[in-house]
Design brief:
With 379 residues, the chain is an alpha/beta fold. It is built from 13 helices and 15 strands.
């Protein structure tokens, strides 16, 4: 487990790579999410308590989460030494040691950087599976939710009938990402257990030809904006088009707060959003991640469960390029906030703006992918 995975998300740092970023995140009051995400995955393995030997890192690198889930001390095999600060080299060393000690599956908690570290030492011929706990989770090696990852691990360890496939390991240049530029690189492939509805797809980019469609969507959003109402604009090129229609600046990978005429705050953290909500109500405009279909829990952790509760389901506006919806092939839009009750709050159907005066009703799921139905209960 990468103990600091996701620590930079809610405070708006857009990643957790590097000790300086981690220290800065702590100074801003950030808390890592990896412990809770790992515990959620391990709950699915509880049927194997007493039978399963878990190899894990000491302390915050896995042992604490394992013990928290009720796995007895005699079922643990610790790898490495306990440290308060960990680096990518610690992840690589732990993965190598686990493979050498005879592990059958390596379940890791982190983001794209952690997946990249695992790939660097294991290559493509050893089964692994990611528990989504980072800020950047664009690779296709992660469960849709932490629980999904645990369920798939249980299936792999008990039935041996899990299908294995190779999935992409992608990572971004974090410095460029923080500057609003997205440079994604394919590093290789990891072998993962796979079952549809349990593993996320890799992120796909929008082609330049979709610029006109984004502007049409933005024109529809702007036409419906209420003067003096404040809006949260989530990350993405489609939400950036809304700001362009308003002739306002927009951070591509950040969350901004605007009115019809002014920018109130740019690149805000969870804390700043909550402080703004103390002063005035906000509406939220979000777009799904292409290829994956995530609305919340991937790349926009500033929009936390607390923010979603305060904004209210009825004040969330979803916008999407038509091709993003078509590419899902009937799979629902996804939410993985880390809090099941908030995921449940968002379950159901949502109106999605796909063009100027064009909307569809589409299913939203808190985890398991299902086919779209014709029910018309919407946000």
């Amino acid at each position: 487990m990468n103990p600091i995975a996701g620590i930079g998300g809610r405070v708006g740092l857009k990643g957790s790579d590097g000790l300086e970023i981690q220290r800065r995140a702590r100074q801003l009051g950030a808390e890592p999410l990896a412990q809770d995400r790992t515990a959620a995955a391990l709950q699915a393995l509880r049927p194997l308590v007493g039978e399963l030997t878990l190899m894990t890192g000491p302390g915050l690198m896995g042992e604490s989460a394992v013990r928290r889930c009720g796995f007895a001390a005699h079922s643990l095999s610790l790898v490495g030494k306990e440290m308060w600060e960990t680096t990518a080299e610690d992840t690589r060393s732990a993965a190598q040691a686990m493979r050498a000690a005879g592990a059958e599956l390596i379940l890791f908690a982190g983001g794209d950087g952690t997946a990249r570290n695992i790939y660097e030492v294991l290559g493509s011929d050893f089964p692994v599976l990611g528990i989504p706990a980072g800020v950047k989770i664009y690779s296709g090696v992660f469960g849709i939710t932490a629980r999904n990852a645990g369920e798939l691990a249980l299936e792999f360890l008990t039935s041996r009938r899990s299908r294995l496939r190779q999935a992409e390991v992608l990572d971004l240049d974090e410095d460029a990402y923080r500057a609003g530029e997205i440079y994604t690189r394919l590093y290789g492939y990891l072998t993962i257990p796979y079952r549809r509805g349990h593993v996320q797809n890799q992120k796909t980019a929008a082609p330049a030809s979709e610029y006109v469609q984004a502007q049409a969507i933005a024109a529809d959003v702007v036409a419906g904006m209420v003067p003096e109402q404040a809006y949260l604009l989530g990350p993405g090129t489609t939400t950036r088009a809304v700001a362009e229609q308003l002739d306002l600046p927009k951070t591509l990978v950040g969350v901004d707060i605007v009115t019809h005429e002014n920018v109130l705050a740019m690149d805000v953290s969870e804390r700043q959003i909550l402080e703004m909500l103390d002063q005035r109500p906000l509406k939220l405009v979000v777009t799904p991640i292409g290829g994956q279909g995530f609305l919340f829990g991937r790349g926009n952790q500033q929009i936390s469960p607390d923010v979603i509760r305060r904004v209210g389901r009825e004040n969330i506006m979803v916008i999407s390029l038509p091709n993003k919806i078509i590419a899902l092939r009937g799979r629902p839009l996804l939410v993985d906030t880390g809090e099941p009750e908030v995921d449940q709050l968002l379950n159901g159907y949502v109106e999605v703006i796909t063009g100027y005066h064009e909307k569809i009703v589409y299913k939203v799921s808190g985890g398991r992918q299902t086919e779209v139905s014709s029910t018309n209960q919407a946000f």
